[in-house]
Design brief:
Shape: globular
Number of strands: 4
Radius of gyration: 18 Å
Largest sheet: 4 strands, mixed
Number of domains: 1
Strand content: 5-15%
Order of helices and strands: HHHHHHHEHHEEEH
Distance between the termini: 21 Å
Number of helices: 10
Helix content: 40-55%
Length: 294
């Protein structure tokens, strides 16, 4: 399993392969074909990227006291999606799709863990959140995201309104952030990938570390004049989560969240393609089938 996993990691965009010091255990991934393992890595990293952008958006909102976009809308979702969509980079578009897929799959599989709101705001969305995200996506690119918006339950008769509203949303956030934009590198980030405390998390910690998702956040958000240095930490938390702490000035990504997403998509792939498959996986609602791989 370890050799296959390292081979898959070596071809994932964003990865720089490093030696793995110890054996890694992930029973949920053992029966995946190499292609399915590749899809699983893509899915885990895509969800990590979106989750971290979401928490970094919370950081911007709290540091700059940015106003809410309106009743019934999640400000961090809207800001994160706007930043990612406006970057016009395929890997960020893919991350948004992976995240929305995870909401759909988790509800369908009824595998969401117990939680106390607002904890797990990335992991446990309301159905209305799907439609808010779908509206932003079709507002940006109806042709590219129309099928996904339909799957997410956004009525087609609302798409035109989303297309009209999207540039206004972009303009609003651009105007709010403009006074806080500085030369890239203004804000310093302390990036740490801690060792996993559980051998069953080792393989997921490796995915996160070798994809350097925390470094992406440091690079992407260093151009804002934040209140001070920010710690970006990946570690074992005892629960699947990712969160921003204004008090500690730290964004934490939990390896348990990577495990949750890995097991979620692995179970779906196996259920869609038999107990084991070296043949291509059947159509699933993920970015892989849209031809957009991380």
């Amino acid at each position: 399993m370890l050799r296959r996993f390292r081979t898959v990691l070596s071809v994932v965009l964003l990865c720089s392969v490093m030696p793995v010091a110890q054996a890694q255990v992930a029973p949920a991934l053992d029966d995946l074909s190499d292609e399915q393992l590749q899809q699983t890595v893509n899915f885990v990293i895509g969800n990590a990227v979106f989750g971290l952008y979401h928490e970094a958006s919370k950081m911007l909102i709290s540091d700059f006291a940015l106003s809410s976009p309106g009743e019934g809308k999640d400000a961090a979702d809207e800001l994160a999606a706007t930043i990612m969509l406006e970057a016009n980079q395929e890997w960020l578009d893919t991350a948004i799709v992976n995240a929305t897929d995870s909401w759909y799959l988790a509800r369908s599989a009824q595998t969401l863990p117990e939680h106390n709101p607002p904890v797990y705001t990335v992991l446990v969305p309301k159905v209305g959140r799907d439609q808010q995200m779908a509206c932003l996506m079709v507002g940006k690119d109806e042709a590219g995201y129309g099928d996904l918006a339909t799957m997410m339950g956004l009525p087609k008769n609302e798409w035109k309104a989303c297309e009209t509203a999207y540039p206004q949303t972009v303009a609003r956030w651009t105007e709010l952030l403009k006074p806080h934009a500085k030369t890239p590198g203004t804000t310093k980030f302390d990036v740490r990938y801690e060792p996993a405390r559980d051998p069953f998390l080792d393989i997921y910690a490796t995915m996160v570390k070798e994809s350097k998702v925390l470094d992406l956040i440091a690079r992407g958000f260093s151009a804002y004049d934040l209140k001070g240095e920010v710690k970006l930490t990946a570690r074992s938390c005892g629960r699947p989560d990712t969160y921003w702490s204004a008090e500690r000035r730290e964004i934490t990504y939990c390896y348990e969240l990577a495990r949750f997403h890995g097991e979620l998509i692995a179970a779906h792939l196996l259920a869609s393609n038999g107990d084991r498959g070296d043949a291509p996986a059947k159509e699933i609602p993920t970015a892989v089938n849209l031809g957009q791989e991380l």
